[in-house]
Amino acid sequence: MVKKIIKNLTTTFRVNKSYKQWPGLIKAYKKWLPVNDSTPIITLQEGGTPLLELKSINEIIGKNVKVYAKYDGLNPTGSFKDRGMTMAISKAKEEGCEAVICASTGNTSAAAAAYAKKGHMRSYVLIPDGYVAQGKLAQALVYGAEVLAIKGNFDKALEIVQALSEKYPITLVNSVNPYRLEGQKTAAFEIIDYLGEAPDWLCIPMGNAGNISAYWMGFNQYFKAGLSKKLPKMMGFQAEGSAPLVIGKTVKNPDTIATAIRIGNPVNKEKANIVKEESKGKFTSVTDNEIINAYKLLGNKEGIFCEPASASSVAGLIKLKNEIPNNSVIVCVLTGNGLKDPDCAIKNNDAVFKSGIDPDLNKVAENMGF
Ligand code: AN7
To answer: Do 215 and 188 contact (CB within 8 A), yes or no?
Structure first.
């Protein structure tokens, strides 16, 4: 009797065998990627992130529109950069490289550091001193990167690492490294694999514009293979104080609360403009206020904590509300996790927070309004 109960319990509570572990994106999409049987796969099982319907945004927009979030902040280091980094680091390993370098507003450095260590390599990261969110800096340090903070912005840091990688035996893993975009394109595959079709719009934040270019490559590959019947309009968003792709010229001193996309001279600008033209998309800027409103909405209406740069995709969609065709399916890419930037969260929320309360039941109840 007891044995039978235990047996029933174990059968009931054991994970359904059809849910195997997600293997990481290189194994999942091997035939679409420039890898072969001798490529060492350096992975933290990135990719396979959720596509969540955003019902509160559907309601704001109306028109029978369905909006989803591609929640890439749930990758192993908390951002979409892991998709590119598993490829870049695996290929660097295959080529016998022993050290990698990048410039970063934070997320690339966290991913580079983690994957480099997983692949037993050194990593050097150049960051703009004082403009990298705390969580990202903490990650680079914990993953054992050699962190060099420069008295200059991201654009200057990128210039320096590009020159260093030409002069010294060290592999550059910024998005000028083509393997980065190869890895990142798999997010587009996942969206089509899940929805069964490409969305009508893809809303995405832009910094260096590597990710928008990668998604477009992914959507096109599936389209050409007959796995989708349409291509999305690519809607790119930048912060108003840092919007070189919207205004069509370099921004010398970019400024925004969304430090991840505080980039004035995007290296992939030509690619991005082609994406916009080919997809009949549009680039738009959103203010820091609009970003924070979307950031709060995602948190307190949807239970999704993303970083401010990521919220720009949702802020942008809300801004373009009147241009959305009826019955559209829209995917907003949430590129990074909210935990990356705790300072921003603590300064920008509508929560009730009372401190200094006596540790007494009645006092607590009183403060709860009873
Ligand atoms: C959360 O980490 O450039 O347009 O150095 O961290 O592909 O550059 C980060 C960029 C969007 C923009 N959202 O992507 C870096 C870095 C988040 C980001 C972007 C970034 P791209």
So the answer is: yes
* Sheet strands side by side (includes 233-239): 51-53, 66-71, 329-334, 201-205, 233-239, 282-286
pLDDT over 80 (residue 16): no
Which residue lies with its CA nearest to atom 4 of ligand 1?
Answer: 209
Ligand 1 atom nearest the C-alpha of 208 is: 8
Per the listing, tokens 């009183």 go with: 366
pLDDT on residue 20: 82
Which amino acid does the sequence have at 247? Answer: I
Cα 67 to Cα 199: distance, rounded to the nearest angstrom: 9
Q: At 248, is the pLDDT very low, low, confident or very high (cuts 50, 70, 90)? A: very high
CA–CA separation, 253 and 355 (whole Å): 38
> What is the model's pTM?
0.95
Q: In the prediction, which pLDDT does 5 show?
A: 60
Rounded distance between C-alpha atoms, residue 157 and residue 170, angstroms: 16
Q: Sorting pLDDT into bands at 50, 70 and 90, what band is 13?
A: low
Q: What are phi and psi of 18, to 5 degrees?
A: -75, -15
Cα–Cα distance measured from residue 287 to residue 269, given in angstroms and rounded to the nearest whole number: 21
Tokens 């490829």 sit on residue = 87
- Mean predicted confidence (pLDDT) in 215-237: 98
Mean pLDDT of the chain: 96
Q: Which residues pair with 100 in a beta bridge?
A: 123, 171
Ligand 1 environment, Cβ below 6 A: 79, 81, 104-108, 175, 205-211, 260-261, 307, 309-310, 335-336
CA dist 105 to 136, 140, 174, 205, Å?
Answer: 9, 12, 11, 14
